[in-house]
């Protein structure tokens, strides 16, 4: 029997015969903005404008001096910072 027509079984595989490289994962193609329907394009533009407005308002607010950081817990019910609950 020659090596060409010899069938390989689990017993006659050597370690160099086995491909251990992981298979290449095919990433799903990301849709381009131009490929989206007009309604989706409009919604994305409006959301981007809203985020820009929120960021502008946030930058205009005065900074807090020696505060707890984050949002006001009385308004947003956030009584926990870094896993420690605070009760005024």
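Q: What amino acid sequence fits the structure above?
A:
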């Amino acid at each position: 029997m020659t090596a060409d027509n010899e069938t390989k079984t689990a017993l006659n595989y050597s370690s160099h015969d086995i491909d251990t490289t992981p298979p290449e994962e095919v990433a799903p193609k990301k849709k381009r903005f131009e490929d989206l329907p007009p309604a989706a394009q409009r919604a994305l533009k409006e959301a981007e404008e809203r985020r820009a407005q929120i960021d502008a308002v946030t930058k205009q607010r005065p900074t807090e001096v020696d505060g707890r950081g984050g949002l006001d817990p009385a308004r947003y019910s956030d009584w926990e910072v870094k896993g420690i609950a605070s009760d005024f």
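Q: And what stands out in the fold?
A: The chain has a mean pLDDT of 74.
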